[in-house]
């Protein structure tokens, strides 16, 4: 038995909105055997645009039952049936959420007439309920009301049952079929074609724009996990509704997929990604020449298109490092913006310091350059060589002077110790603190996959 359902609501997601009308048509596979519909008092104001769309006003539902008052009757109609709706996850998420709040656990197999329409009646210009019914000659005298839409969906479902020569409905109901959980506009074939290997996947909207980027050890398994469950929140419901297409890029390892995900999120700035959009080292150690010709060191916030001598995760870390350099190389605290008063300079030189002009420019700048070189000597240059996407290649990621340089794939027989040749084979990317930390941590965990380079060779 099938329960064909349509609801009207006060908004687009279950956790913050109420139901204003429910219509259920019980279908035995041949015809509708029972009809149920009722207005519901959502115990909140119905927004103006919803009133305009559905015609349901606050006055109309004032004397209607609340959902809790009809929850038992609705549950009895639904719980042992196959739940059918046009864009089924919307109606199911609302009813399951509100039934749960009333103490009932709804757990049904589902069928979506949008997905079934695309399979059984392919090639139509639109699969929205109104346009699909108009194309098929199915009447609906009460559009955007639960009763009218449920009646039209029931007639559409009967037509789909009669037209299903390839048994798509039966296939969708098989125990191991996850199709009813998929977004209404996403063809199942796209899921079937995904590989079970590490990589990055992209969800696209109706216009082809990337709206989400994710990484995975197993692309197919991870993508399917997005569609399990019935989370009723707004972001998830909009997210699922807007997925029309999936593409992917295979990676040799999880590390490569983590790095590529971070790069692509920065490049594409997808609507539904939140993490990794703003992860950067906040501060850096910068050097510049003042009007008198003295080199000055300063800790400052990272600036776009500026290249710090060294990245710092915090202001405290930056000043701690700068204090160590001042102490080791005799740098002026005033020229490093550490001492900001008008008292005598706190360096060992005192009144004979560079800040008073007594120490010659060349002498002081040599100390600053020596301090900068000492920092560079502490920055590693190495590559990570690991599995590729197939047996003919290996993946490679390069850290140069403590910065993420880039990554790519090299032949198995490539001489990775040739630093310049290796750089030419890799795709360069902007330095990224998140990726840099990933690679450094991986190198510490798997030292056998690390290829180190001599400092002289790295600077050549």
Automatic annotation (TrEMBL):
List this protein's GO terms for biological process.
DNA replication proofreading; nucleotide-excision repair
Superkingdom assignment: Bacteria
Q: Which GO terms describe its cellular component?
A: cytosol
- Stretches assigned to the GIY-YIG domain: 196-274
Gene Ontology terms for molecular function: 3'-5' exonuclease activity; DNA binding; DNA-directed DNA polymerase activity
Name the SMART domains for this protein.
Answer: EXOIII, GIYc
A Pfam match? RNase_T
Against CDD domains, the record matches this protein to: DEDDh, GIY-YIG_UvrC_Cho
The annotated subunit structure for this chain is: DNA polymerase III contains a core (composed of alpha, epsilon and theta chains) that associates with a tau subunit. This core dimerizes to form the POLIII' complex. PolIII' associates with the gamma complex (composed of gamma, delta, delta', psi and chi chains) and with the beta chain to form the complete DNA polymerase III complex.
| Role | DNA polymerase III is a complex, multichain enzyme responsible for most of the replicative synthesis in bacteria. The epsilon subunit contain the editing function and is a proofreading 3'-5' exonuclease.
The molecule here is called GIY-YIG nuclease family protein
The protein's organism comes out as Mucilaginibacter myungsuensis
């Amino acid at each position: 038995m099938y329960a064909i359902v349509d609801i009207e609501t006060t908004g687009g997601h279950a956790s913050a909105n109420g139901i204003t009308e429910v219509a259920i048509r019980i279908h035995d596979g041949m015809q509708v055997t029972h009809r149920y519909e009722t207005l519901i008092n959502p115990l909140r104001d119905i927004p103006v645009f919803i009133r305009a769309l559905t015609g349901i006003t606050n006055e109309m539902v004032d004397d209607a039952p609340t959902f809790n008052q009809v929850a038992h009757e609705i549950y009895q109609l639904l719980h042992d049936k196959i739940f059918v709706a046009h864009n089924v996850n919307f109606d199911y998420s609302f009813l399951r959420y509100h039934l749960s709040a009333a103490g009932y656990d709804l757990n049904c197999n589902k069928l979506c007439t949008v997905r079934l329409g695309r399979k059984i009646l392919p090639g139509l210009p639109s699969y929205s309920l109104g346009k699909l019914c108009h194309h098929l000659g199915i009447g609906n005298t009460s559009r955007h009301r639960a009763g009218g839409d449920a009646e039209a969906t029931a007639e559409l479902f009967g037509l789909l049952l009669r037209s299903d020569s390839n048994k798509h409905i039966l296939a969708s109901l098989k125990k191991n079929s996850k199709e009813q959980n998929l977004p209404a506009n996403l063809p199942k074939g796209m899921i079937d074609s995904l590989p079970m290997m590490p990589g990055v996947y992209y969800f696209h909207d109706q216009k082809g724009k990337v709206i989400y980027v994710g990484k995975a050890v197993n692309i197919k398994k991870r993508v399917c996990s997005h569609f399990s469950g019935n989370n009723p929140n707004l972001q998830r419901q909009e997210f699922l509704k807007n997925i029309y297409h999936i593409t992917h890029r295979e990676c040799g390892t999880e590390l490569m997929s983590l790095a590529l995900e971070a790069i692509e999120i920065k490049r594409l700035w997808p609507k539904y990604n939140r993490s990794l959009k703003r992860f950067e080292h906040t501060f850096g150690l910068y050097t510049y020449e003042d009007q008198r010709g003295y080199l000055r060191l300063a800790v400052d916030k990272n600036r776009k298109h500026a290249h710090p001598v060294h990245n710092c995760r915090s202001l405290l870390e930056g000043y701690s490092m700068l204090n160590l350099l001042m102490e080791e190389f005799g740098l002026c605290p005033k020229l490093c913006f550490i001492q900001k008063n008008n008292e005598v300079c706190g360096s060992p030189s005192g009144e004979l310091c560079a800040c008073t002009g007594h120490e010659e420019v060349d002498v002081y700048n040599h100390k600053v350059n020596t301090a900068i070189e000492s920092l560079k000597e502490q920055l590693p240059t190495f590559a990570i060589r690991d599995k590729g996407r197939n047996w003919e290649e290996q993946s490679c990621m390069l850290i140069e002077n403590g910065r993420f340089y880039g990554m790519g794939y090299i032949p198995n027989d490539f001489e990775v110790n040739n630093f310049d040749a290796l750089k030419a084979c890799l795709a360069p990317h902007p330095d990224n603190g998140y990726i840099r930390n990933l690679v450094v941590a991986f190198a510490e965990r798997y030292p056998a996959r690390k290829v180190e380079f001599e400092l002289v060779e790295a600077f050549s």
